[in-house]
Amino acid sequence: MPGSRIDYSVILDLVPQGTKVLDLGCGDGSLLAELVRTKGVTGRGIEISEEGVGACIAKGLTVLQGDIDEGLRDYPDRSFDYVILNQTIQAVKKPDMVLSEMLRVGKKGVVGIPNFAFWRMRLYLMFNGRMPKTEFLPYEWYNTPNIHFCSLLDFDEYCGKNAIAVERRIYLSTDRGGRVLKGARPNLFAESAVFLLSRRG
Amino acid sequence: MPHRKEAGPVGLVKKKFYTFCEPPHEMALEGGGRLGPVTIAYETYGRLNRDKSNAILILHALSGDSHAAGKYSAEEPKPGWWDNTIGPGKAFNTDRFFVICSNVIGGCQGSTGPSSVSPMTGKPYALSFPIITVGDMVEAQRHLVDHLGIDRLFAVAGGSMGGMQALQWAVSHPDRVLASIPIATTAKHSPQQIAFNQVGRAAIMADPNFNDGDYYGKTVPKDGLALARMVGHITYLSDDSMHEKFGRRLRGKKTLGYSFNLDFEVESYLRYKGDAFVSRFDANSYLYITKAIDYFDLSLPSGALVKAVEKVKSKFLVISFKSDWLYPPYQSKEIVKALMVNGVDITYCEIDSRYGHDAFLMDEGEMHKIVKNFLENVAARNGIAAPGAGG
Fold first, then answer.
1. Active site residue B3
2. Would the CB atoms of A54 and B369 count as touching at under 8 Å?
3. B72 CB contacts (<8 Å, ≥6 apart)?
4. Among residues A67, A66, A62, A94, which one has the least CA distance to residue A80?
5. N or C: which end of chain A has fewer CB within 10 A?
6. ipTM for the complex?
7. pLDDT for residue A74
């Protein structure tokens, strides 16, 4: 998400001081570095790209180059307080497996997703008759790394059916430099959302 | 603080020696043998800081030696084997760190090995030299580090067999290593790796001049050693890098010779590498060191690597290369997994290099950047002072 990264500040608020955090698909480590700096977390990252890993190392982060689609089987149960999957789920091959693994390895999960039912997406498809493109999702259908889009309703429904408790839902808009939405019909008006999850039962 | 100036050479360097375990002392070896006195050849680059906390021990591979950087004289044609990595402003920044590299025991470049004179007989040990292990190499280095007055190494680092020593250091001396950087290595030799080493040893032993290792002062088994080196070299390259380096180009001719003389570039390259090796390496050292690598299995005695590394306290940077088929990335991932399960602070990077196992020795910009950044961050976080003006 371009601009001020409202999602970062939301996640920074969600994660308590001094916890143990695993960031899946941590990219260049910007979010993880902020968590380490401002929240004093013990941070670990997993990133698939060599460039991302190199950038994380330059920031002094601890990162493993790896593919989260291959699972987190080497990580013991509940070995992290928070496992973060921010703006990554749409790019993984097996989102269900990744979600279930993150809630095994972490006591809580933080998932940031783009909302495919955002009104601009709907209008784009309706009036242009083409796959929606936005500033944040600029790819063509044939070269997009984003292969698993869902709407906020879809995601909520998935959690309900799979014994995942949604503890918090924070709806976001990139309007006016990025802000949290409080109003009704988030599935229409939120461009993205951050979910705080835990395993039910 | 990272220096802003351009990376440069370390300049002229000198090989030094340290001898320990003089009579009546002896070094007890893992294989049951005993060795003494033991001499270690070593070099240092950069300066030790006041509290002796900025030392990096560089660990060499099978055919390496203590001459990791710089030149002995301005006339020396080539600098040390990791000169592209060690120096002012380089990955192992000698403006910032005190870098040590020693020749392993069993070697032939100044440390006690099979070509050294046995105090018992007054003649070279040859095959009466005891079998040594990677653990013994590290134990000998521990004596050197003690001698230099260093309680805790800032880092240990090396590729291939050097990576095994970097792992062994972190396991054997958890309180004496702040950071470990094993590169292109494994926690235990695979059957394929043992097999290639055995071919090399068989080539040496089949040489008519081998004479049960007793060839010093006589004709050395150079054909066998050259053949061993040729096999080794093939395993260090990748299919890709051989295409790039040689293709099917002919050497010194325009048409195929239709004979058993050398036709292809790759043939003459291997012949050259083999012959060049013979002039600087001892065949018995090749036997002892390859055997030490083959015996390497960090998971012993329990057989469980996760258990073997449970006392490790060092931070780790593990690096592998995608095209390395001799020490493939899966072996590095096994190391990563075992350390991670133990909660070790470990970073892993799989570099997309085309140069096979040799990548760790090449001008591999990505590796250099990663190592440099890693070391600078660990140094900053642990308050490792740069050597002051007064040393």
1. no
2. yes
3. B12, B13, B14, B15
4. A62
5. C
6. 0.91
7. 87
Give the per-residue pLDDT at A181.
92
Which chain A residues are closer than 8 Å to B317 by Cβ?
57
Query: Tell me, what's the pLDDT at B6?
Result: 66
**Boundaries of domain holding B276:** 194-289
pLDDT band at B4 (very low <50, low <70, confident <90, very high): very low
Query: Looking at the predicted structure, is the pLDDT value of residue A144 above 60?
Result: yes
Residue A189 is assigned to a structural domain of this protein: yes
Chain A nearest-CA distance from B130, in A, is 40
pLDDT at A160 > cutoff 50: yes
- The CATH code of the domain that includes A12 is 3.40.50.150
Q: How many contacts (CB atoms, under 8 Å) link A and B?
A: 51
Q: Which of A22, A26, A56, A65 to mutate to test the interface with B (most CBs of B within 10 A)?
A: A65
Identity of the residue in A57, A74, A75 whose CB atom sits nearest the CB atom of B373: A57
User: Is A133 a member of any domain?
Assistant: yes
Nearest CA in chain B to A62: B347
Give the tens place of pLDDT for each residue, B193-242: 999 999 999 999 999 999 999 999 999 999 999 999 999 999 999 999 99
The pLDDT value given to residue A3: 44
For chain B, what is the total number of helices (H) and then of strands (E)? Answer: 10, 12
**B160 part of the active site:** yes
A60 touches chain B (CB under 8 A): yes
Flag whether pLDDT at B1 surpasses 50.
no
- Identify the contact set of chain B against chain A, taking CB-CB distances under 8 A: 315, 317, 336-337, 340-341, 345-352, 366, 369-370, 373-374, 377-378, 380-381
Per-residue tokens: B329? 């990335």
Q: Which chain A residues are closer than 8 Å to B381 by Cβ?
A: 60
- Taking contacts as CB-CB distances below 8 angstroms, the residues of chain B near A20 are none
Percent of chain B with pLDDT over 90: 95
Q: Which residues of A touch B341 (CB under 8 A)?
A: 74, 76
Do B112 and B212 fall into the same domain?
A: no
Taking Cα atoms as reference points, which of B346, B299, B297 lies closest to residue B182?
B346
- Per-residue pLDDT, averaged over A125-129, amounts to 95
What's the structural domain count of chain A? 1
Looking at beta carbons, which pairs linking B351-355 to residues 24 or more positions away fall under 8 Å? B351/A50, B351/B319, B351/B320, B351/B321, B351/B322, B352/A50, B352/B322, B353/B321, B353/B322, B353/B323, B354/B238, B354/B240, B354/B241, B354/B244, B354/B323, B355/B237, B355/B238, B355/B240, B355/B241, B355/B321, B355/B323
Beta carbons of A50 and B366 less than 8 Å apart: yes
Give the start-end residues of each E strand in chain B. 16-20, 27-28, 34-35, 38-45, 55-59, 86-87, 92-93, 98-102, 153-159, 177-183, 315-321, 346-351
Total-model pTM: 0.95
Over residues B41-79, the pLDDT tens digits come to 999 999 999 999 999 999 999 999 999 999 999 999 999
Residue A84 falls within a domain, yes or no?
A: yes
